[in-house]
Write a structure and sequence with these properties.
The chain is mainly alpha-helical. The protein has one domain. The chain is built from 2 helices and no strands. The longest helix is centred in the last third of the chain and has 44 residues, at 55-98. It starts with a helix and ends with a helix.
Length: 99
């Protein structure tokens, strides 16, 4: 693969990778923000006679759930990007075969 087809496939791969990283990070960050908000709300509502609320008790499960959610949102984007690269490579191969 060379020329315009090669550049198009490389560009599609790079754009898909950028989109995957961006979406994964955005979804994960929103989940972490929600966990921090929940922890702060629980700390504010806690009275002095109640047991302490530790940040890891709130954030560890939230971080795991956020990672799963982020992966679920970014996986279809990765699949679409790889499919686009595969299609561009296949198309370039057909063009070479007909020349």
């Amino acid at each position: 693969m060379s020329g315009a087809e090669g550049r198009a496939a490389r560009l599609a791969a790079v754009l898909a990778l950028i989109a995957v990283v961006f979406v994964w990070n955005a979804v994960f960050d929103r989940g972490i923000d929600a966990g921090v908000k929940r922890y702060l709300e629980l700390q504010d509502a806690r009275s002095s006679d109640r047991p302490l609320i530790y940040v890891q008790d709130i954030m560890r499960p939230e971080a795991a759930a956020s990672a799963v959610r982020a992966t679920a949102w970014s996986a279809p984007i990765a699949f679409a990007g790889f499919a686009a690269v595969w299609w561009l490579n296949r198309r370039a191969g057909r063009r070479r075969a007909t020349r």
